[in-house]
């Protein structure tokens, strides 16, 4: 018997857009009856990482950092389309990291949950690179939680193009330290 046994014991049926059924394996340890999966949740997990999704991630991380710095911001739906040049650079950073690391939507959603949970406990002493550090810390933690096989920190270094290995190690450590 191999170390990696097949733990998928039954199949879940989903309807494809073309009307034909799609059979997906369901993990044996799943405690949720396949019939009880929320269609809305399944639809959310299946989203594409489009420009509006990336902009939402950027806005949410920006709000979180502003909150940690004691700044007030307008709610997302009341903001105008004018953004600072730094905002555009952060969108590029997020887009580049997500594409380079081939991050899937469930990992991005998990990262957003981590940012939300960290928000009341964040204390940012140095504003420089704060957006990138919070985003990357949450994304690395989410990737390691949601994937059996994930990137090593040296690979995250390559995906960011701006941080070294020590920086990425520190970013991950500091982000996870918020939850202690």
From TrEMBL:
Coiled coil regions in record: none
CDD domains: CYCLIN_ScPCL1-like
Transmembrane annotation, as ranges: none
Entry-linked SUPFAM superfamilies: Cyclin-like
Stretch forming the signal peptide: none
Domain Cyclin N-terminal, first and last residues per copy: 88-178
UniProt name for this protein: Cyclin N-terminal domain-containing protein
């Amino acid at each position: 018997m191999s170390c990696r046994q097949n733990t998928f014991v039954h199949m879940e049926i989903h309807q494809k857009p073309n009307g034909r059924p799609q059979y997906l394996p369901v993990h044996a340890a799943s405690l949720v009856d396949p019939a009880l999966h929320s269609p809305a949740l399944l639809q959310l997990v299946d989203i594409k990482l489009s420009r509006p999704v990336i902009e939402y991630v950027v806005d949410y991380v920006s709000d979180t950092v502003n909150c940690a710095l004691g700044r007030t911001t307008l709610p997302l739906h009341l903001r105008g389309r004018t953004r600072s040049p730094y905002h555009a650079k952060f969108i590029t950073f997020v887009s580049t990291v997500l594409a380079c690391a081939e991050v899937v939507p469930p990992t991005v959603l998990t990262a957003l949950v981590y940012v939300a949970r960290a928000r009341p406990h964040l204390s940012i002493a140095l504003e420089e690179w704060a957006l990138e550090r919070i985003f990357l810390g949450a994304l690395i933690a989410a990737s390691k939680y949601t994937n059996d096989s994930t990137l090593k920190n040296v690979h995250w270094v390559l995906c960011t193009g701006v941080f070294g290995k020590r920086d990425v190690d520190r970013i991950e450590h500091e982000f996870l330290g918020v939850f202690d």
